[in-house]
Design goal:
A 6-stranded mixed β-sheet has the order 1-2-4-3-5-6, with helices on both faces. By secondary structure, it is an alpha/beta fold. It is about 40% helix and about 20% strand. It has 8 helices and 6 strands; from the N terminus they run H-H-E-E-E-H-E-H-H-E-H-E-H-H.
Length: about 230
C-alpha cells in the first residue's frame, strides 16, 4: 500500500498516522478468522516501543463469573489521590472479538498513573466463541465483585468508576445502566473512550468515513457485529 494517499479532510498528524498504518500492509481483518485477528493485534502491540508509565505494582486475579473464572489484572499507583484510592473497572476494546489484558496494558497503566487511582482490567469472554450477552455478564459480575471485595483490593468502594475504549466503552456504558437499574454498585463516573454505542452500524458516518481512514473501516465493523451478535 505504498501508493496510499490519506483523505484530504484529515489533519497532518492523522495523515502521518494513516500512512504508517498503511505501510504495515496488514491483511484486512475481514479476511481473517477471529483467532488470526487476535494474533495480528497482539503482534502489532508487541512491536510498539512505548515507555510504560511508572506504577507501584500489578496483581493477576481470577474473578468468579457466570461462565467460569474471569482473568483480571489489578494496577496500583505510586501516588494516590485519596487513601484508599478510588478504582476504575476497565474494559478493553476490540469489537468484542479481539483485545486482551496484554493489548490494553499500556492503557490501564496510563489510567492508573495519571489518574492516581487503582485500575482493574477485565478479560471478559469474547465472540464468536461466546456471543452476546457473555461479555456483558462477565463485565457486570466483575463490577459487583470489585465492589464487594474493595477492602481486600485496598480501594474505596464508594469511589468506583467504569471505563473502556471502543467496545469496552460500550460495556462501560452498559455497566453504568445495569448498576443503576439493578440497584447494584454505585458508579461514581463513567469514562467512555470513542465508545461503540450503536451496533446497528447505520449512521451517516459509516458512509462518509467507512473506507480509507485506517484499519477500522465499515466492513470491519460489520465483521465485529456479525461475530458479537451471532448473526
Amino acid at each position: 500500500m505504498s501508493d496510499y494517499q490519506p483523505p484530504e479532510d484529515v489533519t497532518k498528524q492523522t495523515a502521518d498516522f494513516l500512512r504508517r498504518v498503511a505501510s504495515l500492509n496488514l491483511p484486512p481483518m475481514t479476511s481473517l478468522t477471529a483467532q488470526e485477528a487476535r494474533e495480528q493485534m497482539e503482534r502489532a502491540i508487541a512491536a510498539r516501543d512505548v515507555p510504560a508509565p511508572p506504577i507501584k505494582e500489578t496483581r493477576e486475579l481470577r474473578i468468579p463469573g457466570p461462565g467460569g473464572l474471569i482473568p483480571a489484572r489489578l494496577y496500583l499507583p505510586n501516588e494516590i489521590a485519596s487513601n484508599p484510592p478510588g478504582l476504575v473497572v476497565y474494559y478493553h476494546g476490540g469489537g468484542h472479538v479481539i483485545g486482551s489484558l496484554f493489548s490494553h496494558d499500556a492503557s490501564a497503566r496510563g489510567l492508573c498513573h495519571h489518574g492516581r487511582c487503582a485500575v482493574l482490567s477485565i478479560d471478559y469472554r469474547m465472540a464468536p466463541e461466546d456471543v452476546f450477552p457473555a461479555s456483558v455478564d462477565d463485565s457486570y459480575a466483575s463490577l459487583v465483585w470489585a465492589h464487594d471485595n474493595a477492602e481486600k483490593l485496598g480501594v474505596d468502594a464508594s469511589k468506583i468508576a467504569v471505563a473502556g475504549d471502543s467496545a469496552g466503552g460500550n460495556l462501560a456504558a452498559v455497566m453504568a445502566l445495569m448498576a443503576r437499574n439493578q440497584n447494584g454498585p454505585k458508579v461514581r463516573y463513567q469514562v467512555l473512550i470513542y465508545p461503540l454505542v450503536d451496533y446497528r452500524c447505520k449512521s451517516p458516518s459509516y458512509e462518509r468515513y467507512g473506507k480509507g481512514y485506517g484499519i477500522l473501516e465499515a466492513e470491519t465493523m460489520y465483521w465485529f457485529q456479525k461475530h458479537y451478535l451471532g448473526q
